[in-house]
Amino acid sequence: MIQTTDRSAPEGIDAAIARVTALKRERDAFLLCHNYQAQEVKRVADAIGDSFQLSARARTVPAKWIVFCGVRFMAETAKLLNPSKRVILPESKAGCDLADSIGPEGLRALKTQHPRARVVMYINSNVEVKALSDAICTSSNALKVVEAMDSEEVIFGPDRNLAAHVAKQTSKRVIPWAGSCPIHEVFTLPMLQRARKNVPDACVIVHPECPSDVQEEADEVLSTSQMIETVGRMKARRFLIGTEIGLIEQLRELHPDREFWPVYEHKSCDEACACPHMKITGLHSVLRALDTGKEAITIPEAHRAGALRAVERMLEIGK
């Protein structure tokens, strides 16, 4: 597990933001930022969203540079969709344990076992795995992508909890890979039940990467973008949110008149659930990326065409 770094810029946040703004103009750079990023990073972003929204936005960015404040598979996807741009990941160690849970060898073996099955891989996968897939999906469109496959069997990975969520809603046979997100996997049913006792009138919304029994106990099971949209429409004033703390911080900023409580609080330190890969990126990371142009993403030619085809299939279905 990587360690998060001190994200504070030595000259102060406001001065750092001013420097980032100036460097963006100088470099002709566009900053894409995932919902789980720290609030200070979101303050300098040009677009904030979930994996699907950022993929769609990456394809149309006119700037010369794309600085992707997220994790590696997201920056890879941006480079696939806009190959003429310099795509920079501010922190080279910003990976994804879920994406790393499946490799091309494992997927090839599963395809051999189920030769009639189509392959839908979660966007949380590395480019080599995307290249072996028929289509990519995100948590917001997973069911729609699976339903669009011209087969009765669909290999789905790497997240088993999202696979189970989709399997409950489709008549197709979903063949899951046994991976999971270590951040969402820590949510448990007893944890949610305890949280509900503390905030009994709260609406419970959890991410589909949470275990199935947690999903069943929730009022809504939604992607991060769907959480933001749904909360905006609802009349409820108090919410229990089962996902990474960055999304909760964003909801609190968007709706200061409402209360948002994390389902997950570690009993030894009362800390909410945080992804170290997402939190390693700070303003200092963005400044360094803009200043040096280092950590540019490259896509091996052997995987580029297949991975791009799978991602574009997702965007086509998503329309």
Residue runs with pLDDT of under 50 for 5 or more positions: 1-10
What is the arithmetic mean of pLDDT?
93
State the end-to-end distance.
37 Å
Top-tier CATH class of the largest domain: Alpha Beta
Secondary structure: helix percent: 40-55%
Structural class, by secondary structure, is alpha/beta
Give the total of domains.
Answer: 3
Strand order of the largest sheet: 2-1-3-4
Give the ordered list of helices and strands. Answer: HEHEHEHEHEHEHEHEHHEHEHEHEHHH
Structure report:
The strands form three sheets. The protein has a four-stranded parallel beta sheet with strand order 2-1-3-4, sandwiched between helices. A four-stranded parallel beta sheet has the order 6-5-7-8. The protein is α/β, with parallel strands linked by helices. It has helices spanning 13-27, 39-42, 51-58, 72-81, 104-113, 127-130, 142-148, 160-167, 182-185, 189-198, 212-217, 224-233, 245-254, 276-279, 283-292, 301-318; strands at 29-34, 47-49, 65-69, 86-88, 118-122, 135-137, 153-157, 173-176, 203-206, 220-221, 238-242, 259-262. It folds into three domains: 13-95 and 278-292, Rossmann fold (3-Layer(aba) Sandwich), CATH 3.40.50; 99-182 and 300-318, NadA-like (Rossmann fold, 3-Layer(aba) Sandwich), CATH 3.40.50.10800; 187-272, NadA-like (Rossmann fold, 3-Layer(aba) Sandwich). The chain is built from 16 helices and twelve strands. 50% of the residues are buried. Strand 1 (29-34), helix 2 and strand 2 form a beta-alpha-beta unit. It starts with 12 loop residues before the first helix and ends with a helix.
